## 1
Amino acid sequence: MKVAVLKGGRSLERGVSLRSGARVEDALERLGHEVLPIDVGSDLVKRLVAERPDVAFVAMHGVGGEDGTVQELLEILGIPFTGPSAAACARCMDKVQGKDAIDEAGLPTPDWFAFNQTAFREFGAADALGRLEETLGFPLVVKPSRGGSSLGVKFARSPGEVPQALVSAFSYDDRILLERFVDGRELAVSVLGDKPLPVVEAILLEGDRYDFEARYEIGRTRFACPAELSAEEERAVTEAALDTYKALGCSGFARIDLILNDEGPWLLEANAIPGLTDTSLLPQAAEAAGLSFEQLVERILDLALHPAAA
Amino acid sequence: MAEVPEPTHRRRSHAGTRDLERYAGLFAERTTVMRSSAMRDLMAITARPEVISLAGGLPDTSTFPPQSFAAQMTRIAQESAAEALQYGPTEGFEETKDCSLEVMGAEGMLPDPDDIIVTTGGQQGIDLVTKTLVDPGDVVICEAPTYPGAVPVFCSYQADVVQVECDEDGMDIDVLEKLLGELRTEGRRPKFIYSVPSFQNPAGVTMSFERRQRLVELARANEILVVEDNPYGLLRYGGEPMPPLYQLDGGDFVIYIGTFSKILSPGIRLGWTVAPPPVLEKIGLGKQATDLCTSTLTQYFVREYFAERRWQRYIDDLIEIYRERRDIMIEALRNHFPAEATWTEPEGGLFIWATLPEYIDTSDLLAKALRADVAFVPGQAAYVDGRGRHSMRLNFSGVSAEEIREGVRRIGEVISEQVELYGTLTGEHRVPEPTQETEPNVVPFRKAEGV
């Protein structure tokens, strides 16, 4: 089978995407497929039309490749592709849209407010900050609405830190959200087809848990897979993740990030195209489920070509 | 003859996570400090062709005449192919050392040729000196900010890196003196003080004469070595020449690191280190273990190049080009950076260090700048402790005048947007509003549950 591997592109996560793509190409070759690697640029449509691949493996992360843009083109060209549909990608990529969908499905997600830059620049939204800080409490989390790999996610411990956190988050997107900080265990559930894979937990290695920067620093966090959960916790977490997957309209695969505390799971967001590098969470979870990387890649292709097989 | 089996696959099979864990158990302790970072990933995008990158640190090798390069390489091929393709002495050829001596002589230094070892770039000098002097946990002192490429070297030998603030006159020696006192009371003796005293990378500042003298005196009094890294010394575009630390000290407590990278070519990977004989001997043993010898081929090239006696003229050409680019960058900064920003105006070297208001994190700003197809190095890269978040390093040597103007204009634009946004958020630059309190009824935010 001729498989186009779409990778790279212009997003901020280009580096990770190239690593994901290289690993997928390698697996595809060993599976005996004809591989067509494409570092996505302005000649994408031309190349796809000329090469007519049987299926496209989308190994792109971030804006452009994970937000439905590339998926939309593939839908127009009639080329089957891996991962969620264009519409589902758009919902996952945009945290505000995603949280709306999660909330509408009656699933628990931390309280939030969303703003675009215009609100601050033209409508004096800054005057409302005090009020919502009161509602959300401190620390609070400021996130760019679209963005991956935790880029631009900032924690504000006091009102004085909010403007600076907003300026940083607005560096990544014109829309941001302020979210209530929910303390608890950080879990990720990857879903393949409609089956949940073993849960992964991110465990902070050093420093106190309010050292927020450490969470996103490579090497300061360890991943446990499968996470140590009671049967009841595991059921609650996987159910919540599957419900989120469905609420967002995902298909193929996705990774759901959530927090677990005494009140139960709190859904944070879904990643339509989770990383596939050798340290990424989806391959780790697949391996814990007994799937080698090749088997994972083969299964993902299957789901793209025969969606009903899910 | 036995059949050699055809390789079955062009790429190795990638490791699974279990395999990674298996290898992780084999990794040396020192690799725990060798980390990749989100910022490094971000820097990967700066290589896109449409990006104007002020993030590099590249000399402009396009100015080197290709005919001259061809003639020298041809001569080597015709006259010395066998030798140039052979191993050479670990400490380097005498002729290469003579070239180093000429370069040092141009700045008033006259070391004993026996005190010199030829290295694979100045970077290997930093590595070998650290390898020779530093045990895990030993203190290494350097400038704040410091050369971003030195930090991973110190860290890989598990040094405890302590940074001393710089101002426009280089490393603050008062702070250094205080630090040395504190370390003494703790019973810790730093192994060396690393400094780029002239046209520092990344700050572009040059250490004053008075501070140079004090630094050398402090080193003598405390019997600590100073490692003087001087890649840019001859690239001076204004002001008075400053004596290198090595010259002031005479070479007792100063180890000198030189390189041909910025005055000829970084691609030839050729530098040298000058150290007191007992230290040099250990450095030599370390080098032998690392790579036996520096490339003989490029040593032949440098020898041929210096024999033409035009190297100083080439530096004069570079100075002309870089001076103009520096002036253009400074002018562009004045035109496009907001009033709250400050920057250094270097008398030489390749870099300008700009500092923004403290509410702007330059790592985040880089994401925004990349959307405008322009890149710089976020200041954090030059610190070990997360400082430098509001500064950036800008390179002017490897980019054309037009790119400098346009690049700085684009960065200025994204900064201005953030300055304006911050003003709006804090009410500092807000347009006057009616005095009576009004309900913010047009704010398009979502109500959280329970409000």
## 2
Amino acid sequence: MYIYETIDYLENYPANVFIASIEYSNFHWHLDYELILVLKGSVMLTDGVRTSVLKAGDLYLVNTKSIHSLDNRGERNLCLFIQINNELLKNPKDPTQTYFFYLNSQDDILIPKCGYGKIRQAAAQIGYGWRMEKATGVYRMYALLYGIIADLFESSVYDTYLSSDRNSNEDNRFLVEILNYIQDNYKNSHVLEEVCQKKGIGEKNLYRLLKEKIGQTPNKFLLENRIEHAKYLLTCTKKSISYIAGDSGFSSESTFFRVFKQTTGTSPLQYRREGILSNYKPELKNYLDFNYAEARSLLVKLIEKE
Amino acid sequence: MKCTKEYRLSNTDKAKEILDQMTLEEKIYLMSGNITLKDREEEMKKRKEFKKYHYCYKPYEAGGYAKKAVPAMKFCDGPRGVVCGTDKTTCFPVAMLRGATFDTDLEEKIGEAISEEVLAFDGNLFAGVCINLPYSPGWGRSQETYGEDSFHLGEMGSAMVKGVQKKNVMACIKHFAFNQMEISRLEVDIECDKRTEREVFLPHFKKCIDNGASVVMSAYNLYQGTHCGHSDYLLNKVLKEEWGFDGFIISDFTYGVRDTVEAANGGQNIEMSFCNHFGEKLLEAVKNGQVPESRIDDAALRIIRTILSFTDTENQNYGEEILANQDHIQLALQCAREGIVLIQNHNQVLPAKKQGKIVVLGKLGEKELTGDHGSSWVFPPYIVTPIQGLNACAPDAEIVYYNGENLEHAKELARLADLVVFIVGYDYKDEGEYISADQVSVDGYAEACGGDRYDLGLHEAEKRLIKEVAPENENSVVVLIGGNMIMIDEWKEDVSSILMGFYPGMEGGTALAELIFGDVNPSGKLPFVIPKDEKDLPQVEWRTTKQHYNYYHGYAKLEKEGKMESVPFGYGLSYTTFSLSNPHFSTNGNYVKASCEICNTGNREGTEVVQMYVGFCNSKVDRPVKVLRGFQRVSLLSGEKRCVEIMCHTDELCWYNERNELMELEHMEYEVYIGTSSYSKDLLKGKISL
């Protein structure tokens, strides 16, 4: 589901490195730890129960098996991703332990002792393929990656989860299936009942699961998806309000009006009148193509800044 | 046990026969470590390279006389297990935790297990019976000894001696004497009056000798102006003449002998671990008449007789498979279960449920907590950390660990938890055998560490962590890690429960978890008092060349001065309750007897340590209010009742009369107490007359 430019400078390098422009990425998880450096624009990241809007220069680490989603919220962006193999962050003496780091440069409480600048610079250097033209470049690339890991352990706040895992793989898979089902079928007015039936989960448990893992109730999560779709139709099409209400999965026009006003603080008509431009194209859900030269010059600026 | 003193003395003629055939050079060869200076340099070089060439990675040998099949003395260090090998031997809890078990039977079994491991390295001597009395709990190596009370020290040390020697391994008691300061151990000159010497600092050494200890290691420090390793008074007069010690003396390593003539005449028998002042210098001193040959003959006879006695019995063949076997590891676990002390348990927060979210805080939570990195550093095949232990014991609970540096984050974790466990205290950097920065460069150690504690409380950051984070959750437990008393008053009311975990050995994390979750019922008792104010304890200048020891220290000092303690000596809680009744006190020949009925009045099985104290209020001389003179562990099922009887020989009640230089029994009325701690409310009182 990604369109991205990979940076393949090394075989067997224990991280995937790529630069992408993010439009939208559904809730998903992976074993890798994912270090995100925003080069341009902004991106909204929902990671478990926390949501952050990351701006150019911001740094964020998505932990292993952490369920997260990305959304550009209408602004074009450019991001560097370093997906670090989780094997690299295991305690050789006790591989059952999992580390959960707090690295989010939007956070001013859990700041790593070394500051964000050092890690940001190393990440930018990896993104740029720092000194790859030299014979020592291979070692430098490894050193930068291991340096980031060392800084994470030495400087950042992190919790250690023992073998009773924070998110077991199976639980995560199940949760992602549920979230994706709701996102793909929000037009159906009974999507929550459907998902419960299809996935064999009771309504109360569904409520508890979503509340715990993404910090939202199923209704709220569903509503957000519906409202986003409605906003797109309002600003990018000339469809009637009653059509939009129905197409977004609302049972009636009056419900749509009430809920839209509650959520966005403005009425659907006013929203359309103000013509808020949106690049939202739900059929894409992709990382967009971008100008690679632009990315490299942004990386150099970040490297030189420190 | 074959190698009793009587058995050893029966080998005197055999030893003399061998001695008669030896040249002076051969005799002197017995009297120092076999390592050459060059060997030592090689070893130090290697030490920089690999963990596997650590101190005592194989036994240090001294002497030997192959012609007559007298093996060398082969020294293995301790006390928390056998120091030899890497990732091989059983690492028991430190002696201070073992002291808290008040379980002499268990200590004897640990001694046996240790001696089996000594034999597996082809060693024949275990130098891990440390019975120095911590005058101040700040002594950095107090983890190596059993507690602050001389009687208790003597009982625990004797149990270890018996266990080790049962398997025909020589037990070496140390450090003789007055060695309870670490940083200044090489320079400090200790002074005290005769009563303090005889009633406080020497009785436990005498008891171990009486119980058959065959080897004594002299201390580094000076006593009354003389190096203990040279002390005619301590080594010849007290040890050999007065106490009739039949075995041999070895020096502490490298700096234990400073002068050839003074040491040899002072009664030193073996210079360890390499030959510096003995050897040719000693030969020279004998030849020019500074050291009489009889001194050499006495040393050689003692060495030959003792080693022969331990050799000609049926030493079983122990191979590597004995090292850290399941039985030995079980003993280490059992010991930690018995010795960890539950000091406080408000609202019965413990035992904890094995479910929900358990947050563990403090930098020691993920550490391997076995003790210092000095000469007692043991290298086991694995060590269970506190978080690993908790996780294994409660697989259904969600266990999250954070080192606690960021207080806001720690608070947030604590708020969401069902139980918060703080693992705080010390590690090898804070206390232990002192490795100075100089030694790091000269002796190839990895880093400077250890030393005495100038502050007896927790680190400031840990105190802040507890005080700020514990109020966020009503279920909070502090586990204290350290080798001796840690002050608790600044923060104890901020937490529900407190456990003294000491350095609990290779299975320490397992035992801690079993106690926290109630799989095991706590039964340990503090072998020291926790005062409300550090100043209530003797004050020691740690970096000094002179130190005076007063007659009173520890609980005896607090009690004499009428100062209320924070936690009494001998105190420890259980998850059940016990009641004591029907006390009876009597004398029976040379024994004082105290008995009572004890009933387990709670709803689960448990073990209580019943303690007997004797008081001296009617004494004509200045004596303690009361001191420990007996103890016994009693295990009872819920509702079970039993009679406990504790005896104490009247010799244990003597005081030292400086006028006639004798231990004397006062004929007067004594108070006798029986109970569950030294605290007056925990004791039943009676009187006896002698």
